[in-house]
Design goal:
By secondary structure, the protein is mainly α. It has one domain. Helices cover 72% and strands 0% of the residues. The protein is built from 4 helices and no strands. The longest helix has 25 residues. The protein starts with a helix and ends with a helix.
């Protein structure tokens, strides 16, 4: 999963990892600060992470890896733009 900690701390939140994606959705997606697509990408990567952590038979293929990498790049760019405008 993308690290949303910096964004959540900017809102005064310090969640445990398990709730980070839920709080990100509440404070950034539902408010329109970040796009719905960003939330969908985060959810997709979260599922991949959960699979890799807990499904011992899961092996990501090249498409999974490339998709996750592209989502990470998009998330990084959006986060950087957010902080550049805000600060």
């Amino acid at each position: 999963m993308f690290d949303v900690t910096a964004l959540l701390r900017d809102k005064g939140l310090a969640p445990k990892r398990i709730k980070a994606h839920i709080l990100f959705s509440q404070h950034y997606i539902k408010t329109g600060i970040m796009s719905v697509e960003m939330g969908e990408n985060l959810a997709e990567v979260f599922v991949l992470r959960q699979s890799s952590d807990y499904d011992f038979e899961f092996e990501p293929d090249e498409a999974n890896i490339l998709t996750a990498l592209e989502h990470a790049r998009t998330f990084f760019a959006a986060t950087r733009a957010y902080f550049e405008v805000k600060h």
